Amino acid sequence: MEKIVDTILHFEKGPDISKEGIPIPIGFGEQDIMKETPRLFSDKFMLFYITEMSKDSLTIYSNALSTSSRQDVVDYFKMCV
User: Fold this and answer.
1) What is the rounded distance in angstroms from the CA atom of residue 13 to the CA atom of residue 26?
2) One Pfam family, short name please (predicted)?
3) C-alpha span between 36 and 1 (Å, rounded)
4) Mean pLDDT in order along the chain per 10 residues (81 residues)
5) What pLDDT score does 41 carry?
6) How many domains does the chain have?
7) What SS3 state is found at 64?
8) What is the pTM of this model?
9) DSSP percent split of the chain into helix, strand, coil, nearest 5
């Protein structure tokens, strides 16, 4: 639970996209989760996937940092990298 709170607080420090008029997407809710279904992927695959996505996100955040023009967005990407 603490990790979820930390993640939410991390995103709250991000740029204020509401002043740009960008609609905020609706995420998944409890009605979208079926807890009784079997796993789709093994733990080994999930570790591999998380590792690869972490590598890719460093590249993507670095590119976004160098191409952003708004200072609040630049500050957010600096915090992410």
Assistant:
1) 19
2) DUF3231
3) 21
4) 66 65 80 90 96 90 83 80 67
5) 94
6) 1
7) helix
8) 0.49
9) 65, 0, 35
